[in-house]
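User: Predict the full complex structure for these chains.
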Amino acid sequence: MKPGHGEVLIAEGDIEVPEEQESLVAMFRAQLEEGMWAAVPRASAGGRREAQMVTSFDDIPADADRVIFFPRAAGGG
Amino acid sequence: MLLALSASVIVVLVLLWEVAWPVALERIERWRASRRLIVADGYDPGRERRAEQKARALLCSCVNDEEWAMYRDLGFIRVWGGLAEGPMADRDGRGAPYAYLIYPHKPLVAYLPQTRRLLSEYCITFLDESRPYGSALLPDSDDVLAKWMALTGDERRIINSANMHLPGRQVDPKQVRRDLWRLGQWEQARLREQRRGAGSVPAP
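Assistant: Here is the predicted structure of the two-chain assembly.
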């Protein structure tokens, strides 16, 4: 998510392909270093939809089809 | 006599010129400005609308059908709290007798569904680190999705990040109570539709 632009595709690839996985890991780290938060939307055990916050590439569920980065939250006025 | 008259006419003409010339000059400048081509500097007036359309599609793909319909019809999403005992037993075995209303670009409003009592407001902003002197806002639906992800993903973290205030600081409590009433009506209508769709007969 990018303020003023909405959803922007940062990178895509197949984690089974080593080169693409490296690229995805690098992009993931770059986003977190920029201060973004990362989340994976998924269905919970009860069937409800929820997000799983991820702080490292290894935390991403194997069946996740996307990771959404959004600006980190801070207290507002 | 003729000389005096001519001198008077000349003086009048000069005075008129002094008065009229600045006005005429301004009008000429305006006319030129209205015909000048202005380079728009890449500004795209449809950008924000397209961004919001993309954001709505993304939100729709992340939340469940009920939450999406709620946002589409009512303009906000209710998320159950998960930090206390309550009806949400499917979230890590814990539930919550409280819930949040997520409005775009407004604080989260925590309340007790049973009594509709408002508990507090949690003010949150999503900072754009790449723009240190202030940032453009996320599209409305992205703001809602970010709050939804943060709440359902790590409620304690987002609540700790927020500034908590008493109800009514930014969101009018009357509006929230009206929205809760609308939500109740909406849920009843949705339930009736689902029953009808399932072929069951409602009780008299």
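Residues 2-35 of chain B form the longest helix (34 residues).
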